[in-house]
## 1
Amino acid sequence: MHLSVIGCGYLGAVHAAAMASIGHHVVGIDVDEAKIAQLSAGHAPFFEPGLQELLEAGLQSGRLAFSSDMSAAQHAQVHFIGVGTPQQRGSYAADLTFVDAAVESLLPYLEAGDIVAGKSTVPVGTAERLAPSITATGATLVWNPEFLREGFAVVDTISPDRLVVGVPAGDDGEKAVEVLRDVYHTAIASDTPLIVTDYATSELVKVSANAFLATKISFINAMAEIAEVTGADVTQLADAIGHDARIGRRFLGAGIGFGGGCLPKDIRAFSARAEELGRGESVNFLREVDAINLRRRERAVQLVVESVGGSVFDKRVAVLGAAFKPHSDDIRDSPALDVAVRLHGLGADVVVTDPEALENARRAHPQLSFEPDLVRTITGADVLLVVTEWDEYRRELDPDDAASWAKERIVVDGRNCLDATRWRAAGWQYFGMGRP
Ligand code: UGA
């Protein structure tokens, strides 16, 4: 099939390359010419495991191309909209400027029978609002939310755990579902469930899934706060409650909390939309979820300060991690960098390292010092602070080696990802989040 993907960021670039890898002819379109030049030359514009290989193979096969010209979308049968929906300045609501602009500029190239498939995360009601202008061209709008996780985006796109398609009532909706079955033929063949809904449900599936995940993380972080005043250990607590299959251990990782380009802005946009709908009270708890999450960053700062005797002024803090999570170079709303910036503000001599995110971090926070080499980062440190659980720190960093480089043996584990017993055995004072 011939597909266009509008927006070539973390979602769109992966979607385009993944669709080409399963046999479709795909053109990725973005207004950012530098990004298009990079993609066209076979370079992934961000770090995502497996993407580079997929891009190269797609370009070589002749089935994948990129363009900054919207007319390249003409004659594609399905047009995916994968542009960003960031938080608006000065408000919790989502900024739909990019979605609206993408649809507006696509309209002249739509043909009767085309499908426009929205993938961006949008406030409920957006598809209903966009549908009339698309329907007027003879095309059909569906909403097909994306559930990929950064770091696993390629596998999540090719083999998702579910497909959701919100369609209009009637024949057009039914036909569109058949077309999407063809698009996702490989996933459907391996029994991936395809759930067909109306527009509103499909939009809500996406935001409620992220709201649930954020709530789960903040729940365990709230337990960490209680653990801190009772001497309990939140990681043991999570293990124990996680054995209950109804609860499950995943996303019960207490630490400095969630960040990234999705969970924080999605729960805020959800609150804002619920307020608009007169149902703010239904999701009032999301404000608590957000507040608990942000408190954990401050708690990490406090732990570092306490660990060095009450003031970080002039203390060298080696910050291990900048990305909002491992396997990603994404620093959007990264709790790791937020903690680093706060410590810098308290007068600490902060040095940040990260296997992939240093360039992005440097651009966003030029006031911090960055060091690609882990040994040099740790050398002379008064305190080690682990804030992104890369394997390089979690598994591969030997506490005895680290002890020979650092000035003091003090480690603050902002992700509860180190083996505390091993670090203590090597003479380190170990401080976890919600752990004695
Ligand atoms: C999230 C969702 O997991 C995806 O399903 C969704 O498609 C995506 O948002 C999106 O809306 O596009 P992502 O932002 O890539 O994916 O990252 P997650 O793996 O969800 O992690 C989010 C944050 O939560 C990270 O900062 C991570 O460190 C933190 N986290 C995760 C915890 O603090 N504890 C945990 O136990 C798990």
## 2
Amino acid sequence: MQIPKSHPRYHSLMIREKLVSAFRKGIVVPEGLIAHGRGECFDYILGESSRDFALEAEKTAVAMLMLAKNPVISVNGNAVALASEEIARLAKAIGTPVEVNIFHRDERRVEIISKEMERFGIPVYSRGDAELEGLESARRIVDRRGILKADVVLVPLEDGDRCEILKRHGKKVISIDLNPLSRTSRMADVSIIDNITRAIPNMLKFAEDLKKANKDELKEIVEMYDNRRILRNAILAIKEYLEKRAGELHD
Ligand code: ATP
């Protein structure tokens, strides 16, 4: 579909087009389109920009990934549809492998998603040769070299169950989820309340800024971070945004 650049919701409509095209390629499942709708709604009432609390979480996430022994970026269909190239650049910048981990697992889709990421010349794990105990969905199927042994996992667009299991297996979880009320956001160690299309490019900039930072400086960023404060600020930001909009309608 041709979308005129002058359309007031051009950017949002372009993102939808990306998802629909990824759906046609077999990268995204119909359920992923619904999940995106929930995200869009939260983005709307957050003002569709990266707020202070998101930037702080993004910077901390980068520091945490840089400090990790075995970091990994877990990707699903929606994440790849919306930010494949940026994810690959981030993976290269901080030396992190990418693992394909999807809720609606089917080997063909895993292969399509892997190929989509491999185009950028990064290692992509998708063997599915290990299981995370305690989880029923297919997301329990992981790669021995990646999520199974990881100490820090970046999980964009996650569902709460898996986040809980990753934590139970002793991993630090960094989520990207526009909904500050979701179980994922409430359970993650670092909750990035931002659109993945902005979050990953922001993280790339932080990776560049922190390239020369030493371990102590990175540790300090992580130690100063308080995720409950970040979640509280995100919820308050929604409240303030709605109050402002309502205020504009006064007689
Ligand atoms: P939970 O199980 O954590 O309570 P959920 O049931 O909403 O959450 P899913 O249905 O898997 O989980 O939805 C994935 C989440 O991804 C949603 O909460 C949605 O806000 C978020 N999301 C969707 N699109 C984007 C996007 N582009 N950027 C960031 N987050 C997004």
